[in-house]
Design goal:
Layout (H helix, E strand, L loop, with lengths): L10 E7 L6 H12 L6 E7 L6 H11 L3 E5 L6 H11 L4 E4 L11 H8 L5 E4 L9 H18 L11 E4 H5 L11 H7 L4 E4 L21
Parallel strand pairs: 1-2, 1-4, 2-3, 5-7
Antiparallel strand pairs: 4-6, 5-6
The chain binds uridine-5'-diphosphate (UDP) and magnesium ion.
Uridine-5'-diphosphate (UDP) binds next to strand 1 and helix 3.
């Protein structure tokens, strides 16, 4: 719409949002406080994937108070990959950083991801090497999934499940995402020649038992 007002930014944070009403304010604070110490110009693209709670109102309020926040809204729930893909398409940054909206990723890790990218990579994938999953039911399936994806794609990452990554935008331009494919983007990118690195010690607030069993906790 206001294309003439748009300018490109250094980087775009892309966050799929599905029923994250209670997390949005804290998420915004965490992102801005992590990035405002750097002198980078950035935008935050929040994609409301058909939330049934007050997420969209919360996002609209943020966008009204901070022009760096851009909101996309789906009419119904299309899933995390579709939401992320719409965010990638709308992003104007030369570096694109997807992350989860449920406070399971820590935006304080973003400057390190970007530093790593600047060492000469096209994709830097987060690795939650200190992850403390309490539930074996989460750890074993994720180990099996990692082994399977490694052998199928020939790209050996420790942690395909970590949403927090940094991409040079050219890497994403040629990739169409569908299904649950967001996990495989580094592998797809590598197959077309992208240099992929992994960055360890990425914070992953794993699924810890919620303090009160009445609330679902941060694990969607
Ligand atoms: N999400 C989404 N659409 C969905 C399900 C999830 O946009 O249909 C968002 C969700 O709000 C969160 C991110 O995708 O920001 C990751 O979702 P979730 O926490 O459910 O995934 P997990 O942590 O279990 O991999
Ligand atoms: Mg989650």
């Amino acid at each position: 719409l206001h294309a003439y007002l748009e300018r490109s930014v250094n980087f775009s944070i892309v966050v799929p949002i599905y029923n994250e009403e209670d997390n949005i304010a804290e998420l915004y604070l965490a992102i801005t406080s992590a990035l405002d110490t750097t002198d980078s110009d950035y935008e935050i693209i929040m994609v409301d994937d058909g939330s049934a709670d007050g997420s969209f109102s919360a996002l609209k309020r943020l966008a009204a108070q901070d022009q760096r926040v851009k909101v996309i809204r789906f009419r119904r729930n299309f899933g995390q990959t579709a939401a992320m893909s719409a965010g990638f398409d709308a992003a104007s940054g030369s570096i694109i950083i997807p992350m989860d909206g449920d406070l399971q990723n820590d935006p304080a890790d973003i400057p390190r991801l970007i530093d790593k990218l600047h060492e000469g990579y096209d994709v830097v994938s987060g690795w939650r090497s200190d992850r403390k999953d309490t539930f074996i039911t989460r750890k074993i399936p994720s180990m099996l999934a990692n082994a399977l994806i490694s052998s199928l794609t020939g790209v050996h990452l420790h942690d395909y499940g970590c949403t927090l990554k940094a991409y040079r935008r050219e890497v994403l331009d040629g990739i169409n995402l569908y299904g649950e494919m967001h996990r495989f983007v580094p592998a797809l990118a590598s197959q077309v020649g992208a240099k992929v690195a992994e960055l360890r010690s990425i914070t992953g607030h794993a699924c810890m038992a919620p303090a009160s069993t009445a609330s679902p906790g941060p694990c969607g």
